[in-house]
Amino acid sequence: MAFLSIEFFVCLALVAAIFYGIPARWRTVYLLAVSYLLYSLWSPKYVVLLLALSLVVYLAGFAIAKASDDTRREIFLVAALSATVGALIAFKAFEASDGLLLPLGISYYSFKLISYLLEVYWGEPPETSVTAFLLYPSFFPQIVSGPIQRAPDFFAQARERFGAPACYSRIEEGFRLILGDRLALFIVATDGESASYSRGIMLLTTFCYTLQLYADFAGYSNIAIGLGKIFGIDGPANFAAPFAASSIPEMWRRWHMSLTSWIADYVFLPLQMALRDLGKSGLMLSIVASMTLIGLWHGLTMNFLIFGLCHAVFVCVTVLTDPLRLRLFGKNRHARRVGQVIGIVLTFDLMTFSQIFWHLRTWGEAVDRIRCLAGLARSGTLGLAGLPTNLVDGLFISMALILFVGAGCPGIGLIKPGFARIPNWLQYAGCMLLLSATHTDGGPGFIYGQF
């Protein structure tokens, strides 16, 4: 059952109605059952893996909290981390070498479980309710593609809101956030016959990688956050106008924010503290390790490694050239605006370049694409006229809309009051019907669902 199908929205309405109709004490159990039922439909082979890892971490949390000395606490922590990280690495490695299908959402629920272990190790009390804990990694709105919500935040909201009556303003907000992407079929067509198309078409396709990924992932994140709100859980924001970022570090503060903040809190900051005596070299090493991990989190392949290393270089260069850019563009308001515009364009171009390694699955394909774009290899002759009409129709409108939304919808406040006259329920119904109607079964589905 796809997230963008009419069947899913009908089931969602039924699930929400039952949730608010049953006694409060059964709501956690009910959501846990629904989450595991949906997971068994989406990824039936790996339900036991999700349950086993969750129970290991649940029991390890109590063991860490009750351990009599630091040595025993560290043993329990390392054992539980080894099980969780080991399973993640094993499946990523098998996927990279043998094409094994990953357990749905394993990267997301593994990072949730890891953060819970570290929080308990650092002094957070363990969650006592086994049903609430099992719901945390399996919560169905978030398991497919995040966002990666922290355990204390999730448990606090579950305790406060699962027993409360229906909050219609929150449910409205949830439906308001359930809003996709029409670039996928164009990309699939041009990638599949890349030797036949002109250099201009391949450049256009490459720029579409970034736009498609944003539309796909930000769209899913909003759906997931909206679904969670219906049941009283506010998931963390995952995107904040990333195309308005004027540097790569700023872009990562706006893009996949739940992953970036997870890496910052559990990898970058501890590393930076451990390497602080090395000064700027320690800072650079911390950046390289963090960005490389972000790349390998997506998959244990050469291309994802290069993707992470590209961003490590981008971030390091940005940090090292901060004083120079301040001297060039920090003199007055006009100079800062010029610097910001240059930064926005350059940041989008660098992100697009790195997406070649993210999108194309092999090193050879990525190198061939770069050689083609650089004019070092022959390209085909087909232009837009050589593409099926249904792929070209609306392509540039879709690109413009995604850029507009990704830049924070500048000027939207001028037309927003006009929508206030349309009843909210009609807006929500129209949006969901439009999503269902425009969803294409031939598309690749949510890109981040594969992680």
Tally the helices: 21
Low-confidence stretches: none
What's the number of structural domains?
A: 2
Number of strands: 0
Radius of gyration: 23 Å
Structural class by sheet pairing and helices: mainly alpha
Dominant shape: globular
- The protein's oligomeric status is single chain
What do you see in this structure?
The structure is a single chain. The protein is mainly α. The protein has 2 domains: 22-165, no CATH class; 184-450, no CATH class. It has helices at 6-21, 27-42, 47-66, 70-98, 106-121, 130-138, 140-143, 151-161, 168-177, 184-192, 199-230, 248-254, 257-274, 280-298, 302-320, 322-329, 333-359, 363-373, 389-392, 395-406, 424-438. α3 (47-66) packs parallel to α5 (106-121), α4 runs antiparallel to α5 and α10 runs antiparallel to α11 (199-230). The model has no long low-confidence stretch (mean pLDDT 82).
Task: Give the tags.
451 residues, mainly alpha, 21 helices
Give a short synopsis of this structure.
The protein is an all-alpha fold and 451 residues long. It has helices at 6-21, 27-42, 47-66, 70-98, 106-121, 130-138, 140-143, 151-161, 168-177, 184-192, 199-230, 248-254, 257-274, 280-298, 302-320, 322-329, 333-359, 363-373, 389-392, 395-406, 424-438.
